[in-house]
């Protein structure tokens, strides 16, 4: 997720640059003033509360602002991130934003300040006043607005300077030059991000073979719980022996690999993968997470490594086609222990429905998800998924 805070005094051209950024990176634009006006216009409970306060000459509290921003983030999962225009306005609001984004397993990538000398800002706004007809475009009001901006902004900018995500651009330059300088900053920050993809799909959807191929195509690390469990079992370690005991128990023919092993085993193995991430562009996860508990585990693992989920992809294949594929595989040398009978195949599909579909719904609400038609030749399906991953890479550039 890409989250940007864009600052600049009146006249710096923040509106123009915001419009460009939200289109280029598919960001949802958050301006507290605009959101407040919309809530009031729509007559929502929050809007009515704010309207009452404003009518009495009061200032809308941070508590109301928080509710509006949280609602905007929750209601717009299909965007790649958020552009905050002029928020946070105070030191306290900076902490509020940190907490809000943390709740959504995210954080602010950068605060970009479009700097502009006071006299340049005054000249621009006075010139605008000649054609805008705005009563507030006079010198006295302009200078008061600039004074207020500077006094309130300095503590906020210092907050993000200390975090190391504060950047400046010269607002005196032409619009295109300012725009290019902002893009350079965004690309630099995105290049630090890993591309983490979860590939979902019912048993038989082809996510395993597609995941391996795609990881190789894009230079990502492929993580399949079944494979890392089998690999560890051959190492003769204490953990490997625990895994081997479960493999030898004969339970594999009764269920799904990832559901037969305690979460603490799977966490240790994935943690090992994360300890060797230097030079890795990201991960493709297949077979994990299978449950809501495991989804929180993955969120925590990624968060600990200052990363997060980038893309959620779900392969869609009709149920009858899934059964046909799994039944066919049960008669080949590629058959799995859990493909040996039709009742077991049906149970695996039911397990996915009951355990993993809620996980997909959770991620869809938070990150949005992309459904890919999984019917067709391997190459056709691969191309469909590859295009989505390519788009995600482009967003990180």
Plain-language structure description:
This protein has 397 residues and is an alpha/beta fold. It folds into two domains: 2-190, Rossmann fold, CATH 3.40.50.300; 195-395, P-loop containing nucleotide triphosphate hydrolases (Rossmann fold). 58% of the residues lie in helices and 13% in strands. It contains 17 helices and ten strands. The chain has helices at residues 14-25, 32-42, 45-55, 62-75, 91-103, 118-132, 139-163, 175-190, 207-218, 225-233, 238-247, 257-260, 263-274, 292-304, 319-329, 342-367, 378-395, and strands spanning 2-7, 27-30, 81-85, 110-115, 166-170, 195-201, 221-224, 282-286, 311-316, 370-373. The strands form two sheets. A five-stranded parallel beta sheet has the order 2-3-1-4-5, with helices on both faces. Strands 7-8-6-9-10 form a five-stranded parallel beta sheet, with helices on both faces. It is elongated and about 85 Å long. The mean pLDDT is 87.
């Amino acid at each position: 997720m890409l989250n940007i805070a864009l600052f600049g005094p009146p006249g710096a051209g923040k509106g123009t640059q915001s419009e460009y950024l939200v289109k280029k990176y598919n960001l949802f634009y958050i301006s507290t003033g605009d959101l407040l006006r919309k809530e009031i216009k729509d007559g929502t409970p929050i809007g009515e509360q704010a309207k009452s306060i404003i009518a009495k000459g009061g200032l809308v509290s941070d508590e109301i602002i928080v509710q509006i921003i949280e609602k905007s983030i929750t209601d717009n999962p299909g965007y790649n991130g958020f552009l905050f225009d002029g928020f946070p306005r105070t030191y306290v609001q900076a902490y509020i934003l940190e907490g809000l984004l943390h709740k959504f397993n995210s954080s602010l990538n950068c605060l970009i300040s479009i700097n502009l000398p006071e006299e340049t800002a005054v000249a621009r706004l006075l010139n605008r006043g000649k054609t805008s007809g705005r009563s507030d475009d006079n010198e006295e009001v302009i200078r008061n607005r600039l004074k207020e901006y500077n006094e309130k902004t300095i503590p906020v900018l210092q907050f993000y300077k200390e975090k190391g995500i504060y950047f400046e651009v010269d607002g005196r330059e032409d619009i295109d030059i300012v725009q290019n300088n902002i893009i350079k900053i965004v690309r630099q920050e995105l290049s630090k991000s890993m591309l983490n993809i979860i590939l979902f799909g019912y048993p038989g959807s082809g996510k395993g073979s597609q995941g391996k191929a795609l990881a190789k195509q894009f230079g990502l690390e492929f993580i399949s719980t079944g494979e890392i469990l089998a690999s560890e079992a051959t190492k003769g370690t204490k953990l490997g022996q625990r895994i081997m005991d479960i493999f030898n128990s004969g339970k594999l023919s009764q269920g799904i690999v990832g559901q037969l092993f305690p979460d603490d085993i799977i966490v240790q193995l994935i943690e090992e993968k994360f300890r060797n991430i230097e030079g890795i562009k990201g991960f493709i996860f297949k077979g994990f997470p299978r449950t809501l508990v495991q989804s929180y585990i993955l969120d925590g693992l990624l968060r600990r490594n200052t990363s997060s989920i980038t893309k959620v992809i779900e392969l869609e294949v009709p149920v009858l086609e899934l059964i046909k594929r799994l039944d066919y595989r049960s008669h080949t040398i590629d058959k799995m222990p859990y493909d040996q009978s039709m009742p077991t195949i049906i149970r695996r599909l039911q397990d996915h429905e009951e355990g993993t579909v809620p996980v997909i719904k959770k991620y869809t609400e938070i990150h949005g998800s992309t459904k890919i038609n999984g019917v067709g030749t391997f190459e056709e399906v691969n191309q469909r998924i590859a295009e989505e991953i390519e788009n995600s890479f482009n967003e990180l550039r």
